[in-house]
Amino acid sequence: MSVYQSAPTPESSAIIAKDFDFWYGDFHALTGLDVNIARNKITAFIGPSGCGKSTFLRCMNRMNDLIEGTHVSGSMSLDGNNIYAPGVDPVDLRRRVGMIFQQPNPFPKSIYENVAFGPRLQGVTSKSDLDDIVEESLKRANLWKEVSNQLSKDGLALSGGQQQRLCIARVLAVQPDVLLMDEPCSAIDPTSVQKVEDLMAELAPEMTIIIVTHSMQQAARISDYTAFFLQEVAGEPATLIEYGQTDAIFTSPMDRRTEDYITGRFG
Ligand SMILES: Nc1ncnc2c1ncn2[C@@H]1O[C@H](COP(=O)(O)OP(=O)(O)OP(=O)(O)O)[C@@H](O)[C@H]1O
């Protein structure tokens, strides 16, 4: 049984997972997840390595569909619609639920083309419209000031932290409702971490953000809600141990395993 402390209500949630399980082939990776993800807030997923944080994150835009032999049970909805229902187009879902990875992965194209790529695919052809989208997206990603006079430069020539913000701009250009961030700061320098955290705080009022992080400090600093996952027995599925408002989880966890993890006793 998971423990909940002032967790989001269904009415205030963008994503709702109910009795959700996930398998990689025969390996039952996640079980019994009941999680409401608050709309336009930042939610952090924490837990030791291998407890299924990334797996659960990737369920939210069906990225795991790309891995052969995976399947799910239970339900997962976005704005009230089951994302695993027949007829849902995963490509369209991934536009609405964008993803940022641990390693920045810009295309080997110019900064401009990286950001214009998605809107072009969506049918935007006007040069001035694309110019506007590129500028706006780079501004929202806190990168515009650094690159506005070098938009034709190769995205891969930027620093790691700049590349990560370019990837964020690329996702923002297609106007997602949800941003999934899988350890987005673990491969970038501290100054860039600060910039990414600042931009998350700026985006959150209009976007639902979920971040997987190994940094307790980062989870405590930036998130509104925190979910703690654990795989207690090797080979057995992981599950949600405790979930709720970040302040409550960090200052008065109700489950001993949460307390042990956040105080650094394991993991
Ligand atoms: N593509 C895959 N095929 C089979 N098993 C996988 C695959 N990806 C992950 N797993 C397994 O699923 C479990 C959960 O992994 P996952 O990467 O989701 O955990 P995590 O909590 O995000 O870990 P970390 O913090 O190390 O990134 C692990 O046992 C892992 O070995």
UniProtKB/TrEMBL annotation:
<dbReference type="InterPro" id="IPR017871">
    <property type="entry name" value="ABC_transporter-like_CS"/>
</dbReference>
<dbReference type="GO" id="GO:0005524">
    <property type="term" value="F:ATP binding"/>
</dbReference>
<keyword id="KW-0813">Transport</keyword>
<keyword id="KW-0547">Nucleotide-binding</keyword>
<keyword id="KW-1278">Translocase</keyword>
<dbReference type="InterPro" id="IPR027417">
    <property type="entry name" value="P-loop_NTPase"/>
</dbReference>
<dbReference type="InterPro" id="IPR003593">
    <property type="entry name" value="AAA+_ATPase"/>
</dbReference>
<dbReference type="GO" id="GO:0016887">
    <property type="term" value="F:ATP hydrolysis activity"/>
</dbReference>
<dbReference type="InterPro" id="IPR003439">
    <property type="entry name" value="ABC_transporter-like_ATP-bd"/>
</dbReference>
<dbReference type="Pfam" id="PF00005">
    <property type="entry name" value="ABC_tran"/>
</dbReference>
<feature type="domain" description="ABC transporter">
    <location>
        <begin position="15"/>
        <end position="256"/>
    </location>
</feature>
<dbReference type="InterPro" id="IPR005670">
    <property type="entry name" value="PstB-like"/>
</dbReference>
<dbReference type="GO" id="GO:0016020">
    <property type="term" value="C:membrane"/>
</dbReference>
<keyword id="KW-0067">ATP-binding</keyword>
<dbReference type="GO" id="GO:0005315">
    <property type="term" value="F:phosphate transmembrane transporter activity"/>
</dbReference>
<protein>
    <submittedName>
        <fullName>Phosphate ABC transporter ATP-binding protein</fullName>
    </submittedName>
</protein>
<dbReference type="GO" id="GO:0035435">
    <property type="term" value="P:phosphate ion transmembrane transport"/>
</dbReference>
